[in-house]
Amino acid sequence: MAIAKKEQRVVAIVWVIGIIVVWELAAFLLKYVVHDPMAATKLPYPHAVAMTFLENWKMLLEAGAVTFSRAALGFALGTSVGILLAVFMSLSKTMERIAFPYLIVSQMIPVLGLAPIIFNIVRDMNVSRVVIAAYITFFPVSVNMLSGLKSVEQDKKDLLFSIAANKFKVYQKLMFPFAMSYLFTGLKIAAPMAVTASILVDMLGSKSGIGVKILYALYSNSSNIFWASVLTSAFMGIISFYIVVFAERLCLPWQNTTPGKEGVRA
Amino acid sequence: MKNKVKNLLWPLAFGIALILAWQFGVFHKILDLKPFQLPVPTEIASTLAANLPKALKDCGVTISGALIGMIIGSFMGFMIAAMATFFPKWGYGGMIVVTALNAVPIVALSPIMNLWFSTGMAQKIAVVTVVCMAAMAINAYSGLNNLNPYSIDLMHSVAANKWTIFRKLRLPNSLPHIFTASKINIASSIIAAIISEYFAASTSGLGFGIKDNLRKAEMAMGWSYIVVASLAGVILYCIILLVERDALKWHASQK
Amino acid sequence: MKKSKLTSVLAVIMLILLVATGCSSGTSATSTPGAGTSGAEKNASGKLDKVTLQLKWLPQSQFMGYYVAKAKGYYKDEGIDLEILPGGSDIIPEQQVYNGVADIGVTWVSSLMKYQSQGWGLVQVGQIFQKSAMLLVSKTSAGINSAADLKGKKVGSWFGGNEYEIYALLEANGLKKDTDLKLVQQDYTMNQLLNNEIDAASAMTYNEYGLLLESGLKDSDLHVINMNDAGVAMLEDCLFVNSDWIAKNQDLYVRFLKASIKGWAEACADPEAAGKVVFDADQSVSLSHQVYMAKEVAKLVVPKDFDPANIGYIDMDAIKQTADLAHKYGLLTKPAVISEDTVTSKYWKEATAK
Predict the structure, then answer these.
(1) For the segment A225-263, what is each residue's pLDDT rounded down to a tens digit?
(2) Where are the alpha helices (DSSP H) in A109-209?
(3) Same domain, A180 and A79
(4) Are C115 and B217 within 8 A, CB to CB?
(5) Do C280 and C191 share a structural domain?
(6) Which residue, of B137, B196, B223, C36, has the fewest CB within 10 Å?
């Protein structure tokens, strides 16, 4: 196990180095072989972006923290709503019939198109920011949780009911633990989405946050800051993903979704 | 049969109630909105009817971009998940990269993609591809690897090779997950296509229509675009559901 | 065993929530000091009235007058504690002001007219830009020497209400917007023009044109069609308020306008310093760009032969032209109603009275 972990680290490092080399090479080709006049904006050198990041790390981290906290709030709200909806829908077939089609419809409404309407309704910029982030995240959580709850085989449910367990007990002992791996799959998708949503909301108009930095950089043609901000947002997304992975390991240690264990097994 | 009727009746009744409440100003009262802020359904419907050919053309542009991007993205996502399964040591890095891509805000990349691709369509497809890749990769990976305990040992005991295990065990096991990913991707691909159109160098598509009309206070027109987008999404979703029902007859979730 | 799992899941969710609320309260704590300090200062001189101003776009020298007046304490002198809300791609000032998110808004006159015609109770109460800043810029290599040369070219516009001056320009030169040329959407940057993806691009004198110069092009590399010269200018940045709000806050608005005019006059007299003030307030774009923008904006706010004491003056002829063009080229389905309820100089007269 210890060896697997060490190997894993080597793999990760090789991947990171590989990507940087390919990126650097691509930027070089674009600039000196293709002679693209817009090369610096299309694909700047990673080292130039890294330098910009180091020069502005404080500003970027501060902006990132603002965005991340909004994302976390929206994520928490979206997750709670998503789980609740899934539970309600699994409780009653009628409920599912009513709610599910509208869940889908709700996702087809482009949130950016909704933004001015949400501002109209909520009338508070901060609340509407969290609402939008929650709105984007609740769907994958709900869909995954529901398919998890529905995947419980009927015989198992019947067995529990036959020993006179009530509905609450069945959920607690069977359904929830079973649906956990599905839920976490949903959370893994939702967490970076919450970050993305939060950045979008910054870009809609806000005083602080990484999205504002992206917008300003885009607008003023400072492509290195732009790419450094995009990189920062990507990091934020990855961190959010790993927070969920970490939580999953904590909650479901029997699961086999971690790469190290996979390697041992397959 | 009775079930089918019920399946339709309940949401229909709910929807009609919702629309009636909207039409007769219940929402306006609760949310304290004026009709010019939130147009009523009849106004949206008549605006849509008056502009139907243009709306359908824009819808075609957006949906075709979304679908092509989704197919390419889902395929790439699945391939990455399969690679990560076949080569757990090195392939998993691909999963990390995909997750990272998923975290990059697409809106931010849209203007850059404008530079990479000269047409609005190519830019849209590229944005949607990136968005759909991650959900598929994550779902397919967990489907390919969360196997029943002992099933892999069983396969080993009959001396099945990696490829046979993949085909006979992992692939069927991943199907429900793939459909889950497709359902998520339908929604996100349309959203991504619309958002990319906010920035694309063209004046067609639902995204442009929504943004342009909402800014110009043409609320009814903006809403009719939103309605078209939602309907198109729901229809695509239903198609996925039908395919899923046929493909997954054996699975517990379909019983 | 399983119960403990469930508890731990709940614990994690709680933890996330806690962290989130912790973070958000943390940010609100860090964001308040700015407001807090000005609050502390104002308390010494009595109670200040809180006013929020919604900008049309990002914090930049386009709005320098308000930033200068705020930095110099002119609002405080008038008993106002002003909060400036930056705009963004999805922030529509008309809606923000109507909903009460902001008290006063900055927008383009034609856009405001559109909202008014749809029944939104908004009223224009000041005109900051006396001239149109809209240009159509092309590289000289594209050979567009006059508006007629746009035939068969690819032309960029931001749309969303910003396309009507271009429509008017085309029509005035006998070009049909749907058949004679291709209009495409432009993003916030000038990359499409730089990249030769479009032949001519919309540009504001104070912003996008400067971006082109900063990217290394010279004035001689560019050909410009100016909307003012072409006789199709529409008025841009104006001040507007909610009709209900102004009915109750006439005096407050007059005080706001007084301080703003003072700020604008000072900014236009010394754009260099004004650009610096804006840059210090919110570092959205580089200092040099803010200064460039300040200089160009000054020309729009105080054109040649215009008395700086008259900043904010509403030129009814220009309003009329804007309304006529907006109606003629399809933004408005019926002619705009120009009355005391939609455009009023009442408060401006009060604010500028000696």
Answers:
(1) 888 888 888 888 888 888 998 998 888 776 554 433 333
(2) 111-122, 125-150, 154-162, 167-170, 176-204
(3) yes
(4) yes
(5) no
(6) C36
